[in-house]
TrEMBL record:
One of its GO terms (cellular component) is cytoplasm. The gene is prf1. This is Peptide chain release factor subunit 1. Gene3D superfamilies: 1.20.5.170, 3.30.1330.30, eRF1 domain 1, eRF1 domain 2. Belongs to the eukaryotic release factor 1 family. Directs the termination of nascent peptide synthesis (translation) in response to the termination codons UAA, UAG and UGA.
Amino acid sequence: MSSDAQEANADRRKYEFRKVIEELTEYEGSGTQLVTIYIPEDRQISDVVAHVTQEHSEASNIKSKQTRTAVQDALTSIKDRLRYYDTFPPDNGIVIFSGAIDTGGGQTDMVTRTLESPPQPVQSFRYHCDSEFLTEPLEHMLEDSGLFGLIVLDRREANVGWLKGKRVVPVKSASSLVPGKQRKGGQSAQRFARLRLEAIDNFYQEVAGMANDLFVDKRHEIDGILVGGPSPTKDEFLDGDYLHHELQDKVLGKFDVAYTDESGLKDLVDAGQEALSDQEIVQDKNDMEEFFEKLNTGQEATYGFEQTRRNLIMGSVDRLLISEDLRSDVIVYECPNGHEEYEVVDARHSTPDHECSECGDEAAVEEREDVIEHLMAIAEQRGTETRFISTDFEKGEQLLDAFGGIAGILRYSTGV
Ligand SMILES: [Zn+2]
């Protein structure tokens, strides 16, 4: 799979997760009976089954018969789900939610949801039984899923690694043969200085090579690169254009960091906190700026469901822009005369009656589907990238309010 396709998949999964989380946060149990389990990828499934079996037998001490039955049913349902897995959970782990939710009037409904391979690894095993599902850890994973490259260096030592969400992952290190400032007796000062500069240059090349090996393949997924170290090392390194030019463009900033060992990578993340938080919506902002520019100056922009869909099918859409907060369904109607029409409705609303706009006959519902799933499926077939746009800035809000949450930046003008 290409890295673009992987990125598209990751976006789609994030959206699906967000939808499930929104659904789950609306549920409540009448007692402490909603069970959530977070399972890290290195936890043996048989361990988890043993844990759930233990909880099941302890639940027999619950005084309220209704809560007791509800908890035990939830645990049974979780055990059933666990049977689908072999020894270990898939990458990044699994989260399972199960319980009898209140549906009003003393009625309950059994709900079980499994989320596999969240965007960040599940950090620790958690068993949680409450009147609500535990969704916060997953919500954090969705918020903090950026990927950043980290480089710290001085003239003696360097480390490169990743910032994945909130996790710092050291990957490679190097140490230099750069001689100290004190020259040995008998060496000419000039010659010593030249050798020392050469050694520094060699070391910067080595560090850049290390960073290039790690980052260049991932350059389309990386949200930015932070460089840290004492002055003037980091400045010399960046100003000397040692990094691959595409990586150089990704550098968000350079920061003073005292240590250049693995702990220096963590210091770098602390020092660059402001640059990191700004970065989260920088891409969203750039996309929206480009959209408005094209909308104002030319025809290489599209918006609204119908127009965007037509352009997507033509293959003319470079980037599909979807508001992160869009929650709508598309309903496909067909009248007795074979006219097909689409209508977008709020996901919470029931399906309205529809009169064919061409012949006036009553149209029947062919299909009802999540509008984002519908558009993303076409986008994927046409090699169009989908971008989810935050509503945390003005133009992002406008996408949702003024353009129905759907727009596209076109590869060429289509006049559609
Ligand atoms: Zn018709």
